[in-house]
Specification:
It is built from three helices and six strands; from the N terminus they run βαββββααβ. With 106 residues, the chain is α+β, with helices and mostly antiparallel strands.
Length: 106
């Protein structure tokens, strides 16, 4: 079954411990709902740097990455349906970029 990467953009930092616990519960519920489809749970990520032929920019890029997950799904359309359940999408604080992981033989 094909793999799809969810690249998370945006989101918000909880302002209180209670808000953090509520946010974590929403993420855990979503992961439980995905079940065995989750291949690599992933993690949030820190601020990134952009490396190009012109050098290294300390700007996080045009649309900074805030985390990632890898899932299995039958199609990109099915993966997008799963991504709609992401807590950041549900609360309007972020988005999920979905792309198929292409296997390459080496």
């Amino acid at each position: 079954m094909p793999q799809y990467i969810f690249a998370y953009h945006g989101g918000k930092k909880p302002e209180t411990e209670e808000e953090g616990a509520k946010d974590m519960a929403a993420w855990m519920a979503w992961f439980e709902k995905m079940g065995d489809a989750v291949d690599i749970p992933g993690n949030p990520v820190g601020m990134s740097k952009t490396v190009s032929a012109q050098g290294v920019a300390d700007n996080g890029g045009a649309n900074p990455l805030s985390g990632f997950t890898v899932i299995k799904a039958d199609s990109i359309e099915a993966a997008c349906e799963v991504a709609k359940g992401c807590p950041m999408v549900a609360d309007g604080s972020g988005s999920v970029e979905v792309a198929e992981v292409i296997e390459m033989e080496m």
